[in-house]
Amino acid sequence: MKTRRLGPKGPVVSAIGLGCMSMSQSYGRPDEASGLATIARALDLGVTFLDTADVYGPFTNEELVGRGIRGRRKEFFLATKCGFVPGGPGRPGGVDGSPKHIREACDASLRRLGVETIDLYYLHRVDPKTPVEESVRAMASLVDEGKVRHLGLSEVSAKTLHRAMAVHPITAVQSEYSLWTRDPEDGVLPACRELGVGFVPFSPLGRGFFSGTVRSLDALPADDFRRGVPRFQKENLERNLRMVDELARFAKEKGCTAAQLALAWVLAQGDHIVPIPGTKRPAYVEENAAAVDLTLSPSDIARIERIVPKGGAAGERYSPESFALVDR
Questions:
Q1: What's phi and psi for 150, nearest 5 deg?
Q2: For the segment 141-160, what is each residue's pLDDT rounded down to a tens digit?
Q3: pLDDT (tens digit, 9 = 90+) per residue, 9-32?
Q4: Are 27 and 219 in contact (CB under 8 A)?
Q5: Rounded CA gap, 313 and 311, in Å?
Q6: 81: closest CA among 112, 125, 114?
């Protein structure tokens, strides 16, 4: 497995990571056995950058990852997040970036993961009630105490990143970024280059869309997150499928899968970019990991961007409720 550095002075990690959320929620029934097998296979392949969060499950994904890495702590780079607060039965969740919550959440994550130190600790969403400077200051104290090595932010604007960097170095920004979600190119991605911050795209395969396996909502479990995402609704999905089908034809010419082509495109956008495609299946980890060895020429990249042009996706990437939590 090739490696990359998160920023010019940041830590070295595998060039592609593993998002662990789907092992516990959002994409059908949790599958603990398959999740553990996926983590083991990832580590064997050299995919050592693992990403989780306290809210995944909620709370159960960190426990799963903790079991998956037991006895292999030195082999991986572990990222988790704080800031989301799950709602109770029938109540929506919220965001809490207060220093008190951050400190409590970190201690709880350390217990669930069964580790002494978190390699990369993200603020999952900016709390509109708490200045980001206060949140980052609290996270910086965790670095001073040895509980956390590096700090990150998720789904933030360039302006917020600059404010955070004035308090403490930020190692990585995590945001949705893929062929059909290119918003970061208009703000935070250039800011990361300017400031020497790594960029970690989540959902680099468009929430599984570029795998070509999602052809209709009927095939998705009743509780699948994508049922509420505008891009997967009937008319939007039909329009978007024309792009993935054309991408699949090009991938066949290249001797790879559409998913690998989409991941290779993300990797080609900058050496400081480390995507974390999520899966709970060992076979998909193998497929995704192989994308790091796929070389794209300038003409390949141009053709891919003609197939999936910037802004060409039909439908929004989030529901209005989810967008309300994104710092834009």
A1: -135, 155
A2: 999 999 999 999 999 999 99
A3: 899 999 999 999 999 988 888 889
A4: no
A5: 6
A6: 125
**Residues belonging to the chain:** 328
User: Residue for token digits 């993300």?
Assistant: 266
Element (H, E) at 143: helix 132-144
Give the residue numbers annotated as catalytic, written as ranges. Answer: 56
- Taking the alpha carbons at both ends of the chain, their separation in whole angstroms is 34
Task: Compute the distance between CA of residue 174 and CA of residue 274 in angstroms, rounded to an integer.
Answer: 10
Write out the H or E segment, with its range, that includes residue 49: strand 49-51
Q: Which residue has the tokens 């309300």?
A: 324
What separation in angstroms does the CA of 10 have from each of 149, 170, 212? 11, 9, 34
**How far is 128 from 130, CA to CA, in rounded Å?**
6
- Specify the DSSP class assigned to residue 252: H
What tokens does 27 get? 């994409």
pTM (2 decimals)?
0.95
How far is the C-alpha of 79 from the C-alpha of 243, rounded, in Å? 33
